[in-house]
Amino acid sequence: MSGGRTYLDWNATAPLRPEARAAMLAALDCVGNASSPHAEGRRARALMEGAREQIAACLGADPRRVSFTSGATEAANWLLRPNIGTPSSKPLDLLLVAATEHACVLEGHRFAAGRVERIPVDGDGIVDLAWLERRLAEAVARQGPGTTLVAVQAANNETGVLQPLAPIAGLLAAARAPWVCDAVQAAGRIPLDVKAIGRGALFLSGHKLGGPKGVGAVVFGSDDFYPEALLRGGGQERRRRAGTENVAAIAGLAAALAAATSEAGEAGRRSQRLQRRFETGLRSLSSEAMIFGEAVPRLANTTCFALPGIAAETALIALDLDGVAVSSGSACSSGKVANSQVLEAMQAAPALRASALRVSSGRTSGEAEIDACLAALRRLVEGQAKRHLVRAKGARKVA
After folding, report:
1. Nearest-CA neighbor of 343 among 333, 362, 331, 358?
2. Which tens digit of pLDDT belongs to each residue from 3-13?
3. Phi-psi category of 198—alpha, beta or left, where left has phi over 0 and alpha has psi -120 to 50?
4. For 333, what's the count of Cα atoms within 13 Å in the CB-facing half-sphere?
5. pLDDT, tens digit, for every residue of 269-307?
6. Is there a catalytic annotation at residue 304?
7. Which residue among the candidates 58, 181, 304, 332 is catalytic per the annotation?
8. How confident is the model at residue 392 (pLDDT cuts 50, 70, 90)?
9. The 3-state secondary structure of the chain, one letter per residue
């Protein structure tokens, strides 16, 4: 709670962690440019390399394989391109991308439209492994191994659904297909090890886990998957990304990831208790309430649901006026309430998609926040029922 409001939109942005704030304030007092050879520059460089090592330790990586970006969108635009490896490497022929990926993956790639295919998902949002295995085999037969790039996220930003990473890794290893994994919602919440990615990379974003906005990282799983630089003009980041590094933001990102990773076990258990409390309360509000991805593993902090008959836009406005902040899905559509592409890929009925809301909790969330949200939803449902009753009485009078 803050200022009498209830914040349950942590998947959009998590409040800044005190560890991140402290790391950033310390770094802001460092005047040097991390590329300068003098003492001030070396101090800035040391702070940045320390952050790189922190991130690598959290994700089982070699620090030399950690590169900093402005966030997930830049990472997706950088990684999802045909040209990877050395200049003499053969360009990739095909991109297979899960149908429920974030827009930065679905729209941020550099493949020609005819060289992109979407991996179908089932009604719970899990990728169709049989389809993926068959399509990879066809690609290997036609173009040879190692010619297809695959993009499958670890955890969905809207539903919280967790993809089966180990089986996916097995299929990709057999086809020698590199893997780009959006770990934005998973980082700091579930165990991640970049070695499981094999040839490829995962990426994360600072503000989703309690770090600052505008900073992220790409963590590579091997030395033979390095797309050509997206930003040129300097030798920063081992010539992978030109531009003076934002040392303070990088320090904040690393501190936030380290803190979230160390607390993940207890935080997950607390989130599960809150999730059960919310979903039980939701069922008591309406027997028609629909929880998306309920039957499969999900992030413990995320519930995507629909109350049929109540439009998402109406619900969001009413809840906001009632002091509760939730969302209708991804926060990357300029504040608009749009039809969910994720739920469409899961073949949810249009009426359910139009009513879908997302509640996502975080490290300071408690039962009071859950109960406040449920109370606001109850007022919304009861108000909707009263309006239906009034309209029905009016229709009978006219008749």
Report:
1. 358
2. 689 999 999 99
3. left
4. 12
5. 999 999 999 999 999 999 999 999 999 999 999 999 999
6. no
7. 332
8. very low
9. CECCEEECECCCCCCCCHHHHHHHHHHHCCCCCCCCCCHHHHHHHHHHHHHHHHHHHHHCCCHHHEEEECCHHHHHHHHCCCCCCCCCCCCCCEEEEECCCCHHHHCCCCCCHHHEEEECECCCCCECHHHHHHHHHHHHHHHCCCCEEEECCCECCCCCEECCHHHHHHHHHHHCCCEEEECCCCCCCCCCCHHHCCCEEEEEEHHHCCCCCCCEEEEECCCCCCCCCCCCCCCHHHHCCCCCCCHHHHHHHHHHHHHHHHHHHHHHHHHHHHHHHHHHHHHHHCCCCEECCCCCCECCCEEEEECCCCCHHHHHHHHHHCCEECECCCCCCCCCCCCCHHHHHCCCCHHHHCCEEEEECCCCCCHHHHHHHHHHHHHHHHHHHHHHHHHHHHHHHHC
Residue 159, burial from CB neighbour count under 10 angstroms (0-12, 13-18, 19+): buried
Condensed to tens digits (0 to 9), the pLDDT of residues 145-155 reads 999 999 999 99
Beta-carbon contacts of residue 277 (< 8 Å; ≥ 6 apart): 367, 370, 371
CB atoms under 10 Å from CB of 110, counted, come to 15
| Model pTM score | 0.92
| Amino acid at position 268, single letter | G
- Tell the residue number behind the tokens 């053969």, with chain if given: 90
**203-257 pLDDT, tens digit each:** 999 999 999 999 999 999 988 888 888 888 888 888 888 898 999 999 999 999 9
Kindly report, residue by residue over 156-183, the tens digit of the pLDDT.
999 999 999 999 999 999 999 999 999 9
